[in-house]
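Hi again,

Forgot to attach this to my earlier email, sorry! This is the prediction with iron/sulfur cluster bound. I've pasted everything inline since the attachment limit keeps bouncing my files.
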Amino acid sequence: MRLSVYKVLSLFKRSLALNKPHHVQWMLTNRCNYRCKSCGVWREKRPVMELSTKKVKEGLNILHRLGVMEIVLSGGNPLLREDIGEIIDYASNHFITTIYDNGSQALRKIEALRKVDFVAISLDTLDEKKYDHLKGIHGAWKNAMNTVQTLHNQGITVGVSPTISQLNMYEILDFTEYFIEREIPVLYCLYQHDSLPQPLFKIGENDKELEIIDKEDLAGIFTTLTKKKRKNRGILITRKMLDTLNELYLTGHRAWDCKALQSFFMIDHLGRVAGCHLQEPVATIFDLPNMWQSQRLERLRKTYQKCTKCSYMCYMFYSLHANVLGNMEIISDQWRNAKTILKRAKN
Ligand code: SF4
Ligand code: SF4
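Structure tokens for the complex follow:
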């Protein structure tokens, strides 16, 4: 983890800036070695094309100048890039940097991961057979469990990231308990499928087995997580998010306006930018500084603000915590979790 005084002060300054994008997810590659049921990435027969290391660094400089505070490196599997160590090194100088892995690559790139702020390993269940079925790979569960434990033992800040679906929702409380008892934080996603025709990146595959049917029960699970969170550290979801999810699954009411292209945006493996992965690209990262204030993007912001085409948890989170107050809420909420990590680092 790289938290220099320069980085902390610079992040604080950026958190106060108005009308700036604070969160970016960069899907660095469309390569993936897994075959997940919920995912469209591996089904796309597109050739492997990626920006060069130099271009990625150029893009990161632009993001820094735009005021971005947090960057999530994903894909595909970003750890399949040969230059990922160099990218992490560069990104983590300026941003709170999170990287995703399916549990198959992190141990091969362990030295590079020492510099990242957070490693999120996808893991949906404690049931080995079920997980291998979800990932389409024999041995996926063992890989993920071993990776999480090894990174944790090595002092790398690692958490597990389950995607909640109909298939695992009734296990999610026990799953949470298992990991927080071991001081491994849990960062949740929610199964969704993409419903727009020209997405930037095809991620959410429509799968009836995963579609959440028991909505009231899921609302109840979010209520229990809220209670658990009061007593335990390591549940990496804010209370505001849990309340909003509870309301969504209980009543269908969306208590947030989407802030795509305002507080957050996505970049794909070719450097194209869209408000979220479901929307069409609107620029490249290299054109964005000249376009950020344009009337065209302003019009799109207004359209996206009314959009109800998805409830992906990350977009909901960035929308709910979009202003200065929201950033402060995240900091105070996560401070309790950070204390656990710092305490562990001292022992
Ligand atoms: S969900 Fe992640 S690990 Fe699974 S196929 Fe898609 S990109 Fe790969
Ligand atoms: S609600 Fe927002 S994040 Fe979801 S599809 Fe619409 S613009 Fe994208």
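The two ends are 17 Å apart (CA to CA). The chain is about 45% helix and 10% strand.

That should be everything now.

G.
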